C-alpha cells in the first residue's frame, strides 16, 4: 500500500488507499478518525458549492481541484460505511452505474433514440417515481432531501406537486400571489412576532421560487449571479472611495449610492 499511496499516477485506487490509511485506528489521523457521517456532511455540501463556484468563474484549473475535493468526500463517506459493514466505494459506483443504465434505455437498452429531450425527461421522472415506489415512498413529496438548500428544495417540492396538478396554470397567478404575500408582510410587520415574520417571509420566498420555476429560471443560480454582481459593484464602490482616500465607513449613503450607479453604468456595453 505504501508504494500506491506515493504513486503520483495511482488514480482512484491511490485515493482509496490514502483514505484507508487516514482512518486506520492505529496509525491514522486523529481528526479523520473522530469524524462520522454527520460531521462530514457539511463539508460535502461546501465542496459541491465550490465546484459550482469554479464553473461559474470558468476557472478550469480550480475545477479540477474542486472536483477532487468532492470526490474525496464520496470516498470518505464510503470508507466510513465500509467500516460499519454497510457498503464500500465499489458498491457506490455499481449502484450509480445500475441507476444510469436503468434510466437510459434509449442508450443502453432496446428502446429507440428517436425521443425528444422533453420525452426523455418525462421517462426519467417515471423511472424515478418507480424507484421511489420500490422504497415505499408512496406520497407525492417523499424523497425530496431535507438537506437541500431551501430555495432548491422549494422548487423540487413545487415540481412534485405540479405533476399531480397542484400548480397555478399561469405565471400571472403566481405574480398575483407574490404581490399578496408581500403586502401581507409589509402590512403586519409591526404587529407580528419574530417567528410570525419569519413564517411570512418564508411564504414570500416560496412564491418567489415558484415564480422562478414558472419562468424557467433556477433561483439558486439567479441568486448566486446577483451575489456575484453585488460583490463586484460594491468592490468598485470601495475602490472609488479608496482613490479618494476614504472608506465606506467614512462616507455617506448618498455618496456610495452615486458610486454604485456609476459602477452599474460602467458595466453596460
Give an overview in words.
- By secondary structure, the protein is mainly α.
- Among the domains are: 2-103, MazG-like (Helix Hairpins, Orthogonal Bundle); 221-267, no CATH class.
- Helices cover 72% and strands 0% of the residues.
- It is built from 13 helices and no strands.
- The chain has helices at 2-5, 11-22, 30-34, 37-56, 60-83, 89-103, 105-108, 117-134, 150-163, 171-188, 194-214, 219-243, 253-267.
- Helix 2 packs across helix 5 (60-83), helix 4 runs antiparallel to helix 5 and helix 9 packs across helix 11 (194-214).
- The mean pLDDT is 90.
- Belongs to the nucleoside triphosphate pyrophosphohydrolase family.
- InterPro entries: MazG-like_dom, NTP-PPase_MazG-like_C, NTP-PPase_MazG-like_N, NTP_PyrPHydrolase_MazG.
- Keywords: Hydrolase.
- It catalyses: ATP + H2O = AMP + diphosphate + H(+).
Topology:
Blueprint: H1 2-5, H2 11-22, H3 30-34, H4 37-56, H5 60-83, H6 89-103, H7 105-108, H8 117-134, H9 150-163, H10 171-188, H11 194-214, H12 219-243, H13 253-267
Give a brief outline of the structure.
With 269 residues, the protein is mostly helical. It is built from 13 helices and no strands.
Residue ranges: pLDDT <50 for 5 or more in a row? Answer: none
Helix and strand content put the structural class at mainly alpha
CATH topology description of the domain at 2-103: Helix Hairpins
Shape: globular
Number of strands: 0
Determine the CATH superfamily of the domain at 2-103.
Answer: MazG-like
Succession of helices and strands: HHHHHHHHHHHHH
Instruction: Tell me what portion of residues adopts beta-strand conformation.
Output: under 5%
Quote the average pLDDT: 90
Helix content: over 70%
Q: What would CATH call the class of the domain at 2-103?
A: Mainly Alpha
Q: What's the main sheet like?
A: none
Q: How far do the termini sit from each other?
A: 57 Å
Cα Rg: 25 Å
What's the CATH architecture of the domain at 2-103? Orthogonal Bundle
Q: With helices defined by DSSP (H or I, 4 residues minimum), what is the helix count?
A: 13
Amino acid at each position: 500500500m505504501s508504494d500506491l499511496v506515493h504513486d503520483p499516477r495511482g488514480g482512484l485506487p491511490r485515493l482509496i488507499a490514502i483514505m484507508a490509511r487516514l482512518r486506520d485506528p492505529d496509525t491514522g489521523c486523529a481528526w479523520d478518525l473522530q469524524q462520522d457521517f454527520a460531521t462530514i456532511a457539511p463539508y460535502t455540501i461546501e465542496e459541491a458549492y465550490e465546484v459550482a463556484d469554479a464553473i461559474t468563474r470558468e476557472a478550469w484549473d480550480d475545477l479540477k481541484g474542486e472536483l477532487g475535493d468532492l470526490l474525496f468526500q464520496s470516498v470518505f463517506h464510503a470508507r466510513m460505511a465500509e467500516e460499519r459493514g454497510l457498503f464500500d466505494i465499489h458498491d457506490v459506483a455499481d449502484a450509480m452505474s445500475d441507476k444510469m443504465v436503468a434510466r437510459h434505455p434509449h442508450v443502453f437498452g432496446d428502446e429507440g433514440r428517436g425521443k425528444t429531450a422533453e420525452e426523455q425527461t418525462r421517462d426519467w421522472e417515471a423511472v424515478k417515481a418507480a424507484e421511489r415506489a420500490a422504497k415505499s415512498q408512496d406520497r407525492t413529496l417523499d424523497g425530496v432531501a431535507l438537506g437541500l438548500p431551501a430555495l432548491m428544495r422549494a422548487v423540487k417540492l413545487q415540481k412534485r406537486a405540479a405533476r399531480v396538478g397542484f400548480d397555478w396554470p399561469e405565471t400571472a397567478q403566481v405574480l398575483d400571489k407574490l404581490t399578496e404575500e408581500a403586502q401581507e408582510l409589509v402590512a403586519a410587520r409591526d404587529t407580528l412576532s419574530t417567528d410570525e415574520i419569519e413564517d411570512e417571509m418564508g411564504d414570500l420566498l416560496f412564491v418567489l421560487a415558484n415564480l422562478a420555476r414558472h419562468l424557467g429560471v433556477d433561483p439558486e443560480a439567479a441568486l448566486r449571479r446577483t451575489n456575484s454582481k453585488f460583490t463586484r459593484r460594491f468592490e468598485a464602490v470601495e475602490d472609488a472611495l479608496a482613490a479618494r482616500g476614504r472608506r465606506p465607513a467614512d462616507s455617506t449613503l448618498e455618496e456610495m449610492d452615486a458610486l454604485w450607479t456609476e459602477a452599474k453604468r460602467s458595466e453596460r456595453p
